[in-house]
């Protein structure tokens, strides 16, 4: 089956005075079929922009765009490839623990 990667916002840290989102904690789920088999989490700190999007108007899509921009294409790709690798090892392990007796 195809492995899908689902990006989500776990939580935001913001300044109460103006709603500036200074930190985003995100997760990326690695899903094989309908089962989540791997997960990556991380956080990014955001520079304060000249113009703020009102906090009440933020969407997950907008915030994930900020996260991916901050991480950069290479890091986004690395996170997703890592999840694919982890799922491949779960589906077809190359090592095993235990004793022969």
Commentary on this structure:
- This protein has 101 residues and is of the alpha+beta class.
- The protein has helices spanning 60-71, 73-91; strands spanning 3-14, 21-32, 35-45.
- A hairpin with a 6-residue loop joins strand 1 and strand 2 (21-32).
- The longest helix has 19 residues, at 73-91.
Largest sheet: 3 strands, antiparallel
| Shape estimate | elongated
What Rg is obtained from the alpha carbons, in whole angstroms? 18 Å
Indicate the mean pLDDT: 96
**Residue share in helix:** 25-40%
In the sheet with the most strands, the strands line up as 1-2-3
Tell me the total number of β-strands.
3
Distance, first to last CA: 36 Å
As a percent range, the share of strand residues is: 25-35%
Uncertain residue segments: none
Q: Summarize the helix and strand pattern as letters.
A: EEEHH
Structural class: alpha+beta
Number of helices: 2
Q: Mind sketching the topology for me?
A:
Layout: E1 3-14, E2 21-32, E3 35-45, H1 60-71, H2 73-91
Antiparallel strand pairs: 1-2, 2-3
Give a concise summary:
The protein is α+β, with helices and mostly antiparallel strands. It is built from two helices and three strands; from the N terminus they run E-E-E-H-H. Strand 2 (21-32) and strand 3 (35-45) form a beta hairpin.
């Amino acid at each position: 089956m195809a492995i899908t990667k689902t990006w989500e916002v776990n939580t935001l840290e913001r300044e109460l005075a103006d709603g500036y989102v200074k930190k985003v904690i995100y997760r990326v789920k690695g899903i094989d079929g309908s089962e989540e088999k791997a997960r990556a989490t991380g956080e990014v700190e955001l520079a304060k922009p000249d113009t703020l999007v009102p906090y009440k108007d933020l969407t997950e899509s907008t915030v994930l765009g900020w996260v991916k921009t901050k991480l950069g294409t290479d890091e986004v790709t690395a996170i997703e490839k890592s999840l694919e690798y982890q799922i491949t090892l779960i589906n077809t392990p190359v090592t095993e623990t235990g004793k022969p007796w």
